[in-house]
Amino acid sequence: MSDAEQSLPISEPSPAPVAAPVATRMMSIDALRGFDMFWISGGGGLVSSLAALLCHPNPAPWWLGYNMEHVEWTGFVAWDLIMPLFLFLSGVSIPFAYSKRLGETHDYKKIYRRMARRLVLLWILGLIAQGNLLNDPAHLHVYSNTLQSIAVGYIIASIAFLHLSLRKQIGLCAGLLALYWALMMFVAAPGTPAGWLEPHANLALWIDETVMGRFRDGTPYAWILPGLGFGASVLLGSFAGQVLRVKAWTPGRRIAVLFGLGAGCLLGGFLWSFHFPIIKHLWTSSMVLWAAGWSFLLLALFYTVIDVWGFRRLAFPLVVIGTNAIVAYMLPHIIEFDEIVRWIGRVPEGASVTAEFIVCVLAFAMLWVPLYVLYRKKIFVKV
Fold first, then answer.
1. Please, are residues 154 and 383 in contact by the beta-carbon 8 Å criterion?
2. CA 100 to CA 102: how far, in whole Å?
3. Banded pLDDT at 130 (limits 50, 70, 90)
């Protein structure tokens, strides 16, 4: 085993790892989580409206609009990174959370009860957010949300961290990606040739339709078989968390490793995409690596600027969001802040660019201010 591997916190089946906790909370992780949530909790509309205001009467740059919408099927833009980054960051927290708990107790029953509780809560929240649990139970979608994909990946990565060495965790991650690739490319669904990756004709979608039936959401997104990829995405985040926890390493070495892992994943995802295309709807293995590459690089950047260089005040608005990410994610699914602002201000759709910008600012403030109050009172909603 290399010196690098020996330095990393490695989990063995028995005894479980008990790594020394870091002295202070890494603000970069909360800030990056807040950055991720910013875009889907109103920040995306805020940035778009600001660009429209600044560029008026000319249109905003084409590349901004291009990167603020999901690709239709094959390919990847900035907006497509939001969900994979959320999964990746859930993995980053695993080594910190479980090393602390294992330092407190080796009661695995208690740990697994917490794990099961989180799985159930994330699933229910996913049903509320996009599964019609509250607004139309007759058209319930049992598996259709980011939080549910996090739940699946979290279970896989957590069990791996608790009971496998780092080398075996890496092997598991590679195995999940390889197994998913092999199934998608070499196993045919009824009426569909092996290797087909079309929006309405592929093995993963056929499995969803067969298993979930009328409880499927009817979109080209697949969920059950891509669980293999969800597990790999969270595992890759877990590796980043383990890198950040190596106290024997200098910050410069941590940064170099994170950048190296990011570059390696980008290269691997790019090369693999020639045979197994980058398709977020299917969570293809090439997409997992490509998204993880950008996630590693973003984490390295945030860690460098915030935790190493010390620009913490600049990160504060994002930290407020990131420390209560679940609240920031769920509230816009429950409360339409922009519609409330439009109703109060009698602002119609398609108003002036100035009015649209003001609506976006006020709507985002309606979310951020309560999050700030929670932060100041040290109330952090966890599942």
1. no
2. 5
3. very high
CA proximity to 95, closest of 10, 3, 5: 10
**Residue 165 confidence (pLDDT):** 95
Tokens of 39: 């875009």
Distance CA 372, CA 318 (A): 10
Q: How far is Cα 93 from Cα 30, in angstroms, rounded to an integer?
A: 10
> Using CA atoms in the order 266, 267, 272, 274, what is the torsion angle rounded to 10 degrees?
100
pLDDT in tens, 318-327: 999 999 999 9
Bond into 137 cis (ω within 30) = no
For residues 194 and 185, the answer to whether their CB atoms sit within 8 Å is yes
Please report which residue ranges of the chain form alpha helices under DSSP H: 3-7, 27-38, 44-55, 62-67, 82-104, 108-130, 146-163, 166-186, 203-212, 227-244, 251-272, 285-302, 312-322, 325-334, 337-345, 353-376
CB 341 within 8 A of CB 19: no
Residue 379 has pLDDT above 60, yes or no: yes
Buried b / exposed e across 292-312, counting CB within 10 Å, b at 16+? bbbbbbbbbbbbbbbbeeeee
Percent pLDDT > 90 in the chain is 83
Alpha carbon separation from 7 to 98, 157, 174, 242, 254 (Å, rounded): 18, 20, 21, 10, 12
The pLDDT mean for the chain works out to 91
* pLDDT tens column, 177-228: 999 999 999 999 999 999 999 999 999 999 999 999 999 988 999 999 999 9
Separation CA 236–CA 161 (nearest Å):
11
Burial of 104 (0-12, 13-18, 19+ CB in 10 A): exposed
CA atoms within 13 A on the CB side of 351: 14
Whether the pTM exceeds 0.85: the reply is yes
User: Residue 145 has which token pair?
Assistant: 């949300």
How many CA atoms lie within 13 Å of 153's alpha carbon, on the beta-carbon side? 34
